[in-house]
Write a structure and sequence with these properties.
- Two copies of one chain form a homodimer.
- The first copy, chain A, is built from three helices and five strands.
- The first copy, chain A, is an alpha+beta fold and about 120 residues long.
- A five-stranded antiparallel sheet of chain A has the order 2-1-5-4-3, sandwiched between helices.
- At the A-B interface, helix 2, strand 3 and strand 4 of A face helix 2, strand 3 and strand 4 of B.
- Strand 3 of chain A pairs antiparallel with strand 3 of chain B, so a sheet runs across the interface.
Chain lengths: ~120, ~120
Amino acid sequence: MRIELVQQVLEELNGSSPDVEASALISTDGLMIASALPHGVDEDRVGAMSAALLSLGERAARELSRGTLERVLLQGERGYVIMIASGEEAVLTVMARQNAKLGLLFLDIKRAAESLAGLI
Amino acid sequence: MRIELVQQVLEELNGSSPDVEASALISTDGLMIASALPHGVDEDRVGAMSAALLSLGERAARELSRGTLERVLLQGERGYVIMIASGEEAVLTVMARQNAKLGLLFLDIKRAAESLAGLI
């Protein structure tokens, strides 16, 4: 089934590095498609924050002449939230630890987003 | 005067690479402190979008257990918006072209944010 393949890509992404803590695929209108979240991370909260960031990020990118939004990164003192478009209709949200190496992480996330775009 | 020193740091940052298009220092409550923006970039728009992103970014970082927000990056198909804390009371917002090298850019921005934090 398609959703199982989506789930498998998310779990592989989480397993790609110990620095990846959680990942979720969310429709551009803010609904959760699938998630691989550790115990204690609330799916609704991830969905709601992703949708809000996506919406504001798109507006800011447009208003500041950056064109169509492709990626959002938040860095906090305890880690990262990274969002990347997965095709036209979904967004991949990933949470990673603060000592993650961004270059490798971006590559893994981009590949996962491309695989997921082909599945949905 | 202090504001002239702030202005000078922003202009030096813009001059550090042809990929840096604009920079502005904004108070954490969303008011413009100083800006070095090219013709055609609206100061109020940069201030408003920075304040909105900062506010939502802080909330998302907190809700998703990322701790205090340190950096926000938006990547659009036509370039980047990067925001970084400059001390406790201000945020440095930088707009850069789409082919900018992020590693070097982050270093330059971090150094400028540290200088600015010492001035305000």
